[in-house]
Write a structure and sequence with these properties.
Chain lengths: 432, 74
């Protein structure tokens, strides 16, 4: 049998729980959105809007992110993950804290719920970031993609720390005076520093693996990493300039540079994915990988929305379209690998050979997931842009269909692998 | 029957997997490909089955692993 930690990561059930939890959260969020579609057409700072945004960013995207961090760093850095068991603590603390936060937002920004939930989320992601950093210290990253992943995890921690600061500034006038109300910095750190860079870095490796690509250009990855740092530095300057006596013009200029650099990162990633696909050995991509690739169509779409002047719609396109589809595609692929390895890496039974990866899924669900999430993201963006409640209802319905299909696919994969008996433990793995 | 050996040690992921599956595609059923990796290539194994191959993994004392792959019909 393969040792449980043969990949060098944590117990495979940890990411499996996280990925299933993330898929379930998207269903809950989409169903909730269907009951309050005006969230997409009204003011973005209402309790329901903020709560739903955090269902998506924390309970779907970040939970899946946190789950993959239990395996991916060890694979990419070719070493054992530090503090392998810490996930049994950090994952439940993160999920519990995020649920409390969402409830705190939804019930009118309850200070106690935001303080306790926010602290739990910060603590959990602090442990995860420290875990990745210690792992990287054991085996320093040798390429820009691995460095990008480590950096993105640090930005994810910074995002939630800034979020906790925001929540604190809401209830403390003294703190608000001292740090201002850096909502834009919190959002930029999350969307660009954590999510976009995370997809750029891990996606480069995963797409190369799933498409059997001989790789893109190292300079593009390096430029995307440095441009992301530039986005962060400019955003910090834009947020802090008013507090330290800087002129509004300086703050605006820094904000403009940040937007320009976001466009640079997006363009680099767009062309990098194209280069990876051109150099692939596997001509026919699997459906989840196609969904990951399709996510990149939302990058120019978001740019177009921004250029028109629909900035909130651009953010919706980036989050629901680019991040949502990319995470969904990788969720299905990663879950297949994790559960197969857990269940059949051990199998040594000539009478019952392990199933093929492609037999773990229900193929007809894949177009439903892709169409639902893609149409949902498009309609949500247009609803935000135009204020059309009909379009908002369409967006919520499509997202719900896609999210339910995704959860059905995830549970199918788990039941077709972990539902089967596991073989005994030989020293050598063989299918003979 | 051809026998091919690939030393994948020291390569950055996912290069060992891409190299292995790329080489496997150039072989004919019955040919043998043996790879030597820094670690057990756990995420390669299900892909080998999808390619119709059979494999045998030998973990070595230094933590590296050799995988003997016999190409089959997909």
């Amino acid at each position: 049998m393969l040792p449980r930690g043969a990949s060098g990561g944590a117990h495979p059930l940890l990411p499996v729980f996280a990925l299933l939890g993330g898929a379930s959260a998207l269903v809950v969020g989409a169903a909730w959105l269907l009951t309050v579609p005006r969230v997409l057409t009204g003011f973005v700072g209402t309790p329901s809007a903020v709560a739903l945004t955090h269902v998506f960013t924390l309970l779907f995207v970040s939970l899946v992110y946190l789950g993959t961090l239990q395996q991916l760093p060890a694979v990419l850095l070719v070493t054992d993950l530090a503090w392998r068991r810490s996930g049994w603590f950090s994952l439940p603390v993160f999920a519990g804290g995020a649920i409390l936060l969402v409830w705190g937002f939804a019930s009118g920004f309850r200070p106690a719920a935001l303080a306790v939930g926010g602290s739990a989320v910060v603590a959990a992601l602090g442990i995860a970031a420290a875990q990745v950093l210690v792992t990287a210290r054991r085996s320093p990253p040798k390429d820009p993609a691995s460095r990008g992943l480590v950096t993105a995890v640090c930005y994810l921690f910074l995002t939630v720390a800034l979020g906790l600061l925001l929540a604190s500034a809401r209830t403390s006038a003294g703190l608000a005076t001292a740090v201002g109300y850096p909502a834009a910095l919190h959002q930029t750190t999350g969307i660009v520093g954590a999510f976009m860079l995370g997809i750029v870095a891990s996606g480069h490796k995963l797409l190369s693996m799933f498409a059997l690509s001989k790789g893109g250009a190292v300079w593009r990855l390096r430029a995307a990493l440095y441009s992301t740092h530039g986005v962060m530095a400019s955003s910090v300057l834009a947020a802090l300039a008013p507090i330290f006596g800087g002129t509004p013009a300086l703050s605006r200029a820094a904000g403009g540079i940040a937007v320009l650099l976001v466009a640079v990162v997006a363009a680099l990633q767009f062309f990098e994915v194209g280069a990876l696909l051109r150099r692939r050995l596997r001509k026919r991509l699997e459906a989840p990988v196609e969904r990951y690739v399709l996510a990149h169509a939302f990058l120019p779409f978001a740019g177009l929305m921004y250029a028109i002047g629909w900035q909130t719609a651009a953010v919706a396109a980036l989050l629901l379209g680019f991040v949502g589809l990319a995470v969904s595609g990788m969720l299905v692929k990663i879950l297949s690998f994790l559960t197969w390895t857990r269940a059949f890496g051990a199998k040594r039974d000539p009478g019952a050979p392990p199933p093929l990866l492609r037999d773990l899924t229900r193929p007809w669900l894949e177009p439903v997931i892709t169409a639902g999430l893609c149409l949902g993201a498009l309609a949500a963006t247009m609803a935000v842009a135009t204020g059309s409640e009909v379009t908002a209802r369409l967006a919520a319905s499509a997202l719900l269909v896609g999210a339910v299909a995704q959860l059905a696919q995830a549970t199918t994969i788990v039941s077709r692998t972990l539902g089967r008996p596991v073989g005994r433990t030989p020293a050598v793995v063989t299918t003979k | 029957m051809r026998e091919v050996f690939l030393d994948n040690r020291g390569l950055q992921p996912p290069e060992p997997m891409v190299r292995t599956l790329g080489q496997l595609a150039e072989l004919v059923p019955g040919d043998v490909l043996t790879i030597h990796n820094d670690r057990v290539p756990v995420y390669l194994l299900p892909q080998l089955l999808d390619e119709g191959a059979v494999y045998e993994v030998e973990e070595l004392p230094d933590g590296s692993a050799k995988v003997r792959i016999v190409k089959g019909s997909p």
